[in-house]
Sequence to fold (175 residues):
Amino acid sequence: MPLPRPTPDPRLFHRYILHPLLDLLRYGATPDRLAWSIAVGVVLGINPLLGSTTILTLAAAALFRLNLVASQIATHLCYPLQIALFFVFIRTGNKIFHTGHLPMHGRALFAAARHHPWDTTRLLWTWEWHALIVWVLVAAVLIPALVAILTPLLASLEERFHYHPEHPSAPPELR
Fold:
C-alpha cells in the first residue's frame, strides 16, 4: 500500500516568506531598502556560477548595506530558477560569442558540478564567463525593474500590516 502524498501546507508561504518580510518591515526596514535587498538577492540567486549564490549574497549585503535576511531568502527561493536559467545563459553566451558546444550535457554537467565544483568550473570557464556577461546584462535591467515593482508592493504591505506602538496587538518591545 503506497504512502499518502503529503499535501502542501499553505501556511509555509506565510511562515517562511510573508511573516519574515513583515517582521522586517515592522522593525524598521523601509520598503525601498527591502525592495533593493530582495532584488539583489533574486538577481544573485539566478547567476550562472553554480554554488556561488550564498557567498555573493553575503558580500553584496555587506558591501551595499542591504538587509541580509531578505537577500538570503530571495536568493534561496530562486535556486530552481537558477538551475532553469543556467542553460539559457550558457546558450545565449554561445550565440553571442560563438563559443561552440559544451563538452558535457545535462545530467553529466550537474553531476560533475555537484561532486567536483571547482574542477568543473575550471573546465567550463570559457562558457561560464560568457554566461556571466549575459547575466550581468540581464541584471542591469532586472534589478531596477524588480525594485520598481517591489517598492509599492512592500509599501502597501507595510501600510496594511504595520503595528503602531500604542496598538494593543503591537509586540511588547514596541510599546
Observations:
- The longest helix spans residues 125-161.
- The helical segments are 11-26, 31-45, 53-64, 68-77, 79-97, 106-115, 117-123, 125-161.
